[in-house]
Specification:
Elements: H1 5-60, H2 65-101, H3 103-137, H4 142-211, H5 215-225, H6 229-254, H7 259-266
C-alpha cells in the first residue's frame, strides 16, 4: 500500500524531531563532559595553589622580618584568590554542569513522547491496512467494513491528537533549549568574570605586599646576623685592650726624651687615597 501525502509529511516530521532529540542528547552530553573537565582542572589548580601558599608560609618563617611579613601577606592574598576559585568551582558545578546534566532526563522524556506518537501512527497504519483487506475479502459485508472503518477512525483520531501533543511539547522543548543555552553560557561567563575581577583585585594587593619589602633594612638585619652579640663583645674587649696598650706605650715614650720625634711625626701629612 502506497503512503499517503499526510503520512509522508508525518514521517518527515518524525525524522526531524528524532534528529533534533539526537543532536541535543549527543552535544549536550559532550558539552557537559567538557565543562566538567574544565571545572576539574580548575579544582586541581586550586589544590596546587593551596600547596604553594603553604610552602611560601613555611619559607617565610625562616626569612628576615620585612621579607617574612611581605611573603606572609603575599601568601594570605594568594589564599584568598583560591577561596574565590573554590567559589568559582562550586558555582560552575551548580549553574553550568547540573543544568546540562539534567538534559539526560529531559531527552529521555522526549524520546518516550516520540515513541508514543510513533506507536499511535503505527496503529493507524495497521487499521488502514486492515480496512483495505476487509474491503477486498468481504466487499459486500457492510457490517464488517463499517466496524473496520470505525476502528480506523478511532486510530486516526488518536494519532492526530497524540501528534498534536507531540508538536506542542517539542515546540516547548525547542524554546526551553534555546533559553537554557543562553542562561547556561551566560552564567558561565558571569561566574568567570566575577572570579577574575576579584582575583585581579587581590593579585594587585599581593603584588604590592611583596614589592613593599624594605630591602636595605632586611640587609642590615642579615649583616648583623653574621656577627652575633658575643662576637661583638669580644671584639670590643680586644679593641679596648689594644687602646690601653697604646696609651701606655705613648706615655713611656713621652718620658724617654722622644718628644721631638713625636712632634716631628705630627707635622707629616697623611697620604690621600
Amino acid at each position: 500500500m502506497s503512503r499517503t501525502p499526510d503520512a509522508r509529511v508525518r514521517d518527515n516530521q518524525t525524522r526531524k524531531i528524532q534528529e533534533n532529540i539526537n543532536n541535543v542528547e549527543k552535544h549536550f552530553g559532550e558539552m557537559c563532559q567538557m565543562f566538567a573537565g574544565y571545572v576539574r582542572k580548575t579544582a586541581r589548580l586550586r589544590d596546587k595553589a593551596d600547596l604553594l601558599v603553604k610552602e611560601i608560609g613555611v619559607y617565610a618563617d625562616l626569612e628576615t622580618p620585612n621579607l617574612k611579613r611581605g611573603m606572609k601577606e603575599f601568601a594570605d592574598h594568594l589564599a584568598k584568590v583560591e577561596d574565590y576559585r573554590q567559589a568559582e568551582v562550586e558555582r560552575l558545578e551548580a549553574r553550568v554542569i547540573e543544568p546540562l546534566k539534567s538534559y539526560g532526563a529531559i531527552v529521555k522524556r522526549k524520546r518516550e513522547d516520540l515513541k508514543t506518537t510513533q506507536s499511535a501512527r503505527t496503529r493507524e497504519t495497521k487499521q488502514m491496512a486492515q480496512l483495505e483487506r476487509t474491503r477486498q475479502r468481504n466487499p459486500s459485508d457492510r457490517q464488517i467494513i463499517s466496524q473496520a472503518e470505525s476502528e480506523l477512525q478511532r486510530a486516526t483520531m488518536d494519532a492526530t491528537r497524540i501528534t498534536r501533543q507531540l508538536e506542542e511539547t517539542i515546540d516547548e522543548f525547542e524554546r526551553q533549549k534555546i533559553r537554557d543555552i543562553k542562561k547556561i553560557f551566560g552564567d558561565f561567563v558571569t561566574v568567570e568574570m566575577a572570579f577574575h575581577a576579584k582575583a585581579l583585585e587581590v593579585f594587585t594587593l599581593a603584588y604590592q605586599s611583596i614589592q613593599n619589602v624594605d630591602e636595605e633594612e632586611d640587609l642590615e638585619v642579615f649583616r648583623s646576623s653574621l656577627h652575633p652579640p658575643d662576637y661583638l663583645s669580644r671584639l670590643d674587649i680586644v679593641r679596648a685592650n689594644s687602646k690601653t696598650s697604646l696609651d701606655r706605650t705613648g706615655s713611656f715614650l713621652g718620658t724617654s726624651g722622644t718628644l721631638q720625634v713625636r712632634s716631628h711625626m705630627k707635622t707629616r701629612r697623611r697620604p690621600r687615597f
